[in-house]
């Protein structure tokens, strides 16, 4: 958490809250900010007011977490019609509601990794097992690249950017952009002029990053998806051969190396939507 511009603090009731710009916010309030932005985006696109929503949550969420999600929707001005499991929503989005069989949903998003085994029968979705890592997601990939950039700049310029919040924010945005670009190209340029300055003048950051270098930096993170998948299959009481289809969900599944590892785990190419 050392390279983020906010703090995690203990609330009066003992919960973990976020402190930013001198204000403290509950998880429901943070969720409400996100939902408000999504509501505004939907309204701008549709050209009309949006007041109702169906919100998806991880299959392992308990009643308190589901209620907190509903609260976030209410704070955002939404009438939450239903809370449904994310793997079920994924299967619906892939048009599998009329199919039968066992489906693995591999969901690597911005903050968490979830793997679920669904059984679809007569239009009914049953979550057979779920597993994952709540501390593994796109943000960790960004952080790995961010730490590399900070290290490279310190090595070449002798300046530690980890104490400069403005520089860190620019680096984080550049890291995320590079990560996305490397999903479709073999190399990219990270060019940040005037990233900082010292007695000799302005300093610029310019690094060429290859896909192979990026994969080396994040390989340990991708490897962490394997154990939860094996545990999930074991809990569901099935083998990889019994899985009829593997669905990819979440922005990080666009990374070619992630798709390669998914194929390796399940012995079949995943559906990409």
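Q: What amino acid sequence fits the structure above?
A:
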């Amino acid at each position: 958490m050392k390279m983020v511009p906010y703090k995690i603090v203990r609330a009066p009731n003992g919960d973990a809250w976020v402190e930013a710009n001198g204000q403290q916010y509950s998880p429901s309030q943070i969720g409400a900010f996100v939902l408000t932005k999504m509501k505004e985006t939907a309204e701008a696109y549709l050209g009309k007011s949006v007041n109702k929503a169906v919100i998806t949550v991880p299959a392992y969420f308990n009643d308190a977490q589901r209620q907190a999600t509903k609260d976030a929707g209410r704070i955002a001005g939404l009438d939450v019609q239903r809370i449904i499991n994310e793997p079920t929503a994924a299967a619906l989005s892939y048009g599998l509601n009329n199919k039968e069989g066992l489906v693995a949903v591999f969901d690597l998003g911005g903050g968490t990794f979830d793997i679920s085994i669904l059984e679809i029968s007569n239009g009914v979705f049953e979550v057979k097992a779920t597993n994952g890592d709540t501390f593994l997601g796109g943000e960790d990939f960004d952080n790995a690249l961010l730490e590399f950039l900070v290290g490279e700049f310190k090595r070449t310029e002798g300046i530690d950017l980890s104490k400069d919040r403005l520089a860190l924010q620019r680096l984080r945005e550049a890291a995320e952009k590079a990560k996305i670009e490397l999903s479709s190209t073999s190399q990219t340029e990270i060019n940040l002029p005037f990233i900082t300055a010292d007695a000799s003048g302005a300093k610029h950051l310019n690094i060429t990053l290859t896909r192979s270098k990026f994969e080396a930096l994040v390989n340990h993170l991708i490897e962490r998806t394997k154990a939860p998948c094996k545990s999930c299959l074991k809990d569901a009481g099935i083998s990889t051969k019994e899985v009829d289809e593997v669905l990819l969900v979440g922005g990080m599944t666009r990374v070619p190396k992630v798709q390669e590892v998914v194929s390796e785990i399940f012995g079949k190419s995943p559906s990409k939507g």
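Q: And what stands out in the fold?
A: Residues 27-46 form the longest helix (20 residues).
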